[in-house]
Amino acid sequence: MDTEERRRGILDTARREGSVGVNALADLFKVARETVRRDLHVLEEHGLVRRTHGGAYPVESAGFETTLAVRTTRNVPQKSRIAAAAADLLGDAETVFVDEGFTPQLVAEALPQDRPLTVVTASLAVATSLAAVEKTSVLLLGGRVRGSTMATVDHWASRMLSEFVIDLAYVGANGISREYGLTTPDPAVAEVKAQALRSSRRRIFAGIHSKFGAVSFCRFAGVGDFEAIVTDAGLSSAEAQRYSLLGPQVIRV
Hints:
The chain is α/β, with parallel strands linked by helices. The chain has helices spanning about 5-15, 20-30, 35-45, 70, 75-85, 100-110, 125-130, 155-160, 185-200, 235-245, and strands at about 20, 50, 55-60, 95-100, 115-120, 135-140, 145, 150-155, 165-170, 175, 180-185, 200-205, 220, 230, 250. Helices cover about 40% and strands about 25% of the residues. Strand 4, helix 6 and strand 5 form a beta-alpha-beta unit. Repressor of the lactose catabolism operon. Galactose-6-phosphate is the inducer. GO terms for molecular function: DNA binding. InterPro entries: Carb_Metab_HTH_regulators (IPR050313), DeoR-like_C (IPR014036), DeoR_HTH (IPR001034), NagB/RpiA_transferase-like (IPR037171), WH-like_DNA-bd_sf (IPR036388), WH_DNA-bd_sf (IPR036390).
């Protein structure tokens, strides 16, 4: 196995398993740990993985995206805290857009149920979780359903969104960086997110710390487009300050 084949094998393993460790990779590919570290460094430079202490995890890209089912099993306590803090920022909003993805789904479930709310969403999971809430009206955007995320996309969804004026949008992303803004792998998803932001008076990003510094294929917003960013304490206070200088309040929970 040559170097390129090994690096492709490392990337495939990371995408299949969700994360990889240096020691396990060294045993798997029968190379030195330092060789694996060099491979991971190259893969990180190419934007394909993010390194951690002792390993790495894959970055979502045009060629790879984790499914909603996988997202519901990872970092759930942190995502639950983020969702609760994001829901606390609702204020006097009466109409809310809730994005696709597991963290936005948790935000939706954390919204108050004792007051009238209208929730617009592309997510079948969000619509299902809120459909039985007595004082919440749910508007599910039409369009093609992406099987990986169970959410609607394409011009039907974007056109429907363009007819609304929404008080507050809760938005997720596959990556957020100070240089490239908020990104996602699929152009159809990016267009729905971008239209939701155009249709909303207020905008909040909710996402786990591992999203920060990651860059995917399609840019749909800048950091400064948001009034608040809600994440977990895994994002350092210094890095949070750097993001806050671009405009939004950064809340770490």
